[in-house]
From TrEMBL:
Protein name, entry field: DUF427 domain-containing protein
PANTHER family named among the record's database cross-references: BLR5716 PROTEIN (PTHR34310:SF9), DUF427 DOMAIN PROTEIN (AFU_ORTHOLOGUE AFUA_3G02220) (PTHR34310)
Record-annotated DUF427 domain positions: 15-105
InterPro entries assigned to the protein according to its UniProt record, in alphabetical order: DUF427 (IPR007361), DUF427_sf (IPR038694)
Top-level lineage group: Bacteria
Length: 113
């Protein structure tokens, strides 16, 4: 793993909410800490209501994690663009986040309950 990235169990139960709806709840979330950035909670896809997520055309590349694909959230108030991302084939150093999703906390609520 890159020296500046730490991945560990997030501990407790985590929930993600968007547009007034709970998109998922997990006791198996992971916390990824990269350098001095704020920790990011990654949820197993199996704990997320994927019916509320539509694949976006957006992508990005991280030299440490690999290529990310994004999702829009389908909400009653309208789509929340590029609110979630995943590394479908993450770099070997961060393989633990395969099949996990992370969410922008500026667009949705990610909370420990």
């Amino acid at each position: 793993m890159a020296d500046h990235i730490t991945i560990r169990p997030a501990g407790g139960t985590w929930v993600v909410r968007a547009g007034g709806a709970v998109l998922g709840e997990s006791s198996d979330a992971l916390e990824l800490i990269e350098g001095d950035m704020a920790p990011v909670i990654y949820f197993p896809r199996s704990d997320i209501a994927m019916a509320f997520l539509d694949a976006s055309d957006a992508t990005s590349h991280c030299p440490y994690k690999g290529d990310a694909k994004y999702f829009n959230i389908v909400a009653k108030s309208g789509p929340i663009k590029d609110a979630a991302w995943t590394y479908e084939t993450p770099s070997e150093n961060v393989a633990q986040i395969k099949d996990y999703l992370a969410f922008y906390t500026s667009k949705v609520a990610v909370e420990q309950v």
